[in-house]
Amino acid sequence: MEVAFEIAGGRPVLVLSRRLDDEAAARFNRQLILWVERLFNRGITDVAIELSGVSYVSSEILRSLLSMAKRVRARRGTLYILNPSPELEETFGVIGFREIFESYGGKFKQIDLASPPPERASGDTAQLDIIVGDRVVACQDGDAIGTEGSVAPELLVDLPGVAARPVVFQNEGAHWLATVPPDPGSVVRVDNQVIAPG
User: Fold this and answer.
1) How far apart are CA 133 and CA 130, in angstroms?
2) Where are the beta strands (DSSP E) in 21-166?
3) If 0-12 CB within 10 Å is exposed, 13-18 middle and 19+ buried, where does residue 55 land?
4) Segments forming the whole domain that contains residue 82
5) Are residues 51 and 137 in the same domain?
6) What are the pLDDT digits (tens) for 66-104?
7) Using an 8 Å Cβ cutoff, are 50 and 15 in contact?
8) Same domain, yes or no: 89 and 149
9) Residue 21, in any domain of the structure
């Protein structure tokens, strides 16, 4: 199971990929609960989970989705499953999951995650939030992330493979620039793309 967070249509989306099997169930439940609580704490009651990259889903994961749909509905929100893969569509059809999920208050939706970001006025600044574990860290111009960085270094100290050289973020107005140290051992991912050093 792989987990990412994206913004689609100005709304946060939890993006899952690969197999959501019984082995991934505990991690899935932990990520889902943290994600939903984070949104609830920000006053957001509609929750979106994108599944186009998921090839398999276990019955335990389906039960978790039903339980969360019920919980979100109790907060007057909706749990959306976005873009289920063809494999999941087939599974959902065979077991009647779509109807059951909708009876719990959930909805299915097709959206384009590659849609362009919303237009900003020329003076508006794009905000950059970095998610590390269960914490969201708001970045300011010139902040650096790494074991010796200016932003939450304590979260990165014990992680294997995290170098002391930080990634520096600079606000360029309508976008952010990440400067990656020229170290071939450093791997930085932005929107699931590996950013080359330099």
Assistant:
1) 10
2) 47-57, 79-82, 107-109, 128-132, 135-139, 144-145
3) middle
4) 2-109
5) no
6) 999 999 999 999 999 999 999 999 999 999 999 999 999
7) yes
8) no
9) yes
Domain final residue pick, 109, 139, 173: 109
Is residue 118 a part of any domain in this protein?
Answer: no
User: Do 81 and 65 contact (CB within 8 A), yes or no?
Assistant: yes
The first and second tokens of residue 104, run together, are: 């719990």
DSSP state of 173: S
Return contacts of 171-177, CB within 8 angstroms, 24+ apart: 171/125, 171/126, 171/128, 171/140, 171/141, 173/122, 173/125, 173/126, 174/120, 174/122, 174/124, 174/125, 174/126, 175/126, 176/126, 176/128, 176/139
Token duo for residue 191:
């929107």
Which ranges of the chain have pLDDT less than 70? 9, 113-137, 145-153, 155-167, 169, 172-198
Residues 6 or more apart from 19 whose CB is under 8 A from it?
Answer: 1, 54, 55, 56
The DSSP bridge pattern shows strands 193-195 and 144-145 to be unpaired
Sheet (strand 167-171) strand order? 144-145, 167-171, 176-179
Question: Domain with 11 in it: what CATH number?
Answer: 3.30.750.24
Would you state the structure tokens that stand for residue 17, as one six-digit string?
Answer: 């990929």
